[in-house]
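Lab notes, practical 5.
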Amino acid sequence: MFKKFKDHAYRLRLKEELKLLLQIGIPVIIGNLLQTSMSVVDTIMAGNLSPVDLAAVAVGSSIFMPIFILGAGILMAVSPIVAQHFGAGNHAQIGKTTRQSLWLAIMISIPAIIVLRNMNFVLELMSVEPEIIPLTLGYLDAISWGIMPLCLYIALRQFNEGISITKPAMYISLLGLCFNVIGNYTLMYGKFGFPKLGAVGTGYASAIVMFVMFIALIIYTYRKKSYKEFEIFKNLKLPDRKHISELLKVGVPIGISMCMEVTMFAVVTLLMGSLGTYAVAGHQIAINFASITFMIAFGLSAAITVRVGQVMGRSGIKDARFSGFAGVGLAAVFMSITALLMFIFPGFVSGLYTDDPELKQIAIQLIYMAAIFQLSDGLQVSGLGALRGLKDTKIPMYVNLVAYWIVGLPLGYLLGIQFEMGPQGLWIGLIAGLTVAGILHNVRFNKLTKKMIRGTI
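Output from the prediction step:
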């Protein structure tokens, strides 16, 4: 490895690869941060209304997010498929895949809408406070109006990312954030002649944002002259089994994998509730900050998927392997920096959220632990992105099952609850799960690419 770095041609090649990864990835990172900030805005504005409204938004969001993530994960299949076709110069196939992804987005959204509008029994099963239930149901009913445009937006965004065009989605996310603030202010607080809808207004504002973002991206995609060769909107044929099957084959494991990771964190949060208010609050501070830094690795993961897919289609597996590991290395560097910052400034980070001395102390302890899993988190999501670029998603799904639900959660429960180690014990489980996933995804990418180079698969 060190001999390679002495080679001038190798260093130039690596420099160019990292430059391309950053060109694709930075707009994705910014766009993801802007979208994440929308939920922060919802929480802050709902909190200024009443505890009941805040609780309704929190419960509603906890139900909405797994459904959204499953659908979004399935539609993430568009990016690697389009990237490989783009690299190979198969532009007609790009158009067909994108058109079929729009049909798939509609298919996914219909059951999602039905589920979101029939959550009474789930709320009762969760023993949600009776006064919160009507507002939560209203929130879910309101936000369900935005599911279809949101799924269509994701499909078009994945097409754009697949051909390395990521800046439009970034600007559209900024537009969405502006509409989110204005919509919340208008509908939650009853401004400009509208009725005061509270938490339900948050749901309608979110749905409006989803419509705005979809309309903006479809206008951009339709009007961009260089996209005419893909003929995305020229032949709007009915769903095609072949293309839909390929999208589902690649996408369903992605959706399930993402759900398994998200639900692991959700279950840990629920378990934290049994340890007291301060434990939950401290956990929330640490996990919220860690989720922000994770957006860096997540954005780079999308860029890695695109680069591996395009290079695979254009010049084959050897160059795709190089692109994948260059991306993983870049993610590792970024997450090592965030880990270092957490180790050096834990008090500053916790101080951004609270002035309570006891809560700050708990948060600081968990921020130290969040720093430990930064590298693991970066390795797992970047390794996953590299595998996605090869359209290898089934085995990584099983890896996530083992890492998160057989290693991470049981270990966290055993140490945190049974052995009474508290929040730190639960977080050891998180660290273990992410570490196992990080190692196995990269081992998989290494072995798979070696076999493909040898031509044994």
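Observations recorded by the TA: The chain has 17 helices and no strands. Residues 25-239 form one domain.
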